[in-house]
Amino acid sequence: MAIKFLVQRANSPEPLKTSRGGDAVRILFGLPLITYLALIAQHSFIFPYWFADIGTIVVLIACGIYRVLYKRRSHLMSWLLLWLCLCDPSFTLSTYSYLRGWAWPFMLFSFLVAFFVAAHFSGLIIAAARAAIIVCVIGFVIYMTNRGLLFSDEFGSCDPKNIDPIFHRVDTETQAYDGLLLKDPFAVIAGYGTNQGVAVKLLPSGRELWRLPIYRCQRMNFAPDGQVIAPDYGHFGNQESVYLLEVQAKKKRKILLGDECTNAIESLVVGDELFTLCERSKNIMVTKYTSGDLIDIIKLPPKITYSMAADYSRKKIWVSYYLGSSIARIDAPTHKVDAIVKVGFCQMQVKIAPDGTVFVLLPLQQEVVLVDPEKLKIKARYKAGRGVRDLELLPDRDVMFVVNYFDKTLQVLRMSSGKRLGQFRVYPLSRGINLSEDKSLLAVFTGCGVLIAKVDDLLMMSSGKSF
Known about the structure:
The protein is 27% helix and 33% strand. The protein has 467 residues and is of the alpha+beta class. Among the domains are: 2-146, no CATH class; 156-190 and 385-467, Methylamine Dehydrogenase, Chain H, CATH 2.130.10.10. It has a four-stranded antiparallel β-sheet. It has a four-stranded antiparallel β-sheet with strand order 2-3-4-5, with no helix packed on it. The protein has a four-stranded antiparallel β-sheet with strand order 6-7-8-9, with no helix packed on it. Helix 2 packs parallel to helix 6 (124-146), helix 3 runs antiparallel to helix 4 and helix 4 packs parallel to helix 6 (124-146). The protein is globular and about 65 Å long. The model is unreliable at 1-50, 88-104 and 145-154 (pLDDT under 50).
């Protein structure tokens, strides 16, 4: 259809009549402004990026219906389509710094869409020129945003002045997703952005000890024998897998998950079985921890998943859903979903307290939800910040740490009441936090690398007294 339209458009004796230069002015000045406002709106209200995808499909359908019913093109629909198709990739790129690798197909897509829509208003050569200008403007905005020179209120920059001095910055890398604090060697292991792999860095110097070149690891856990479990998210033909790392010996073992798993996001061990949560395929791959042999595939409710946590005393696994309103409980010995609890739409991290209480983060509602594991009902809701993303529990001191993606803050809350005890500034795009084994250190994994702080210092500055 697109090729047929362009051929007809090229053979058209005259272009669609518009005011001279009016559409060019709207492209050059109106589109960047609208895109800027759209980015701010999406950040302010924390709309998931897929809202723009849905909007694009709706407008495409509306354009088609309008064309069939009225036998003419709609200027409003064309401009709305152009804005949505360009706003979506620009939002994704600027937020996640995807100017490497597969960002360029997005830019090509933007050019083609801009060219197709601009052809409504002028000849093909002028349309191509205008499309190129649009993509250059969007690319410039993306570049400046990644440098922290635009949208600074939401994205921020990596200036040390933007964080509280209580934190020590370990490295200068960008897009640290998640990681763990190691005891021997005294180091931090972190999964970084697309194609940056997993790196082990000694503390406090930050000197790199070892790097595993994988596509992306978004979440790590310890196995009972001390090995680090690092699932490879996989992308564009890379088969999803899980790496078991012996950091001190610099050894790795790879478990292939097969085609049934799409986007391995988190793994944990219960008994002698390895459970791997697959985000897009909406299932859990159960393999033998020692051999990697496939045991079972647990089918989950058909929603995009995000995180899971194990209640080892009850042998239960809880799963949260990025696109869902309920969390699911799985009986580990039988591999069956035995409970569903409605908590609220769009969930992030889930953690289990020693008494079995399930803590779930809801970024849209800016809440931490507590679920009773026996009654399967919500027993409390605590207020958190915008884009609440991850938490760590410190039950002995009745404290939990919560990191907020959009607020760029680390909050200290009471586990028993939700009362906010303190708040600290961290770098933007903070996705994960983790406590050391002895609970003395806290690591924050941000868009500007890894931050480390002493737990006692955080608590002292939060309350003015020792816990």
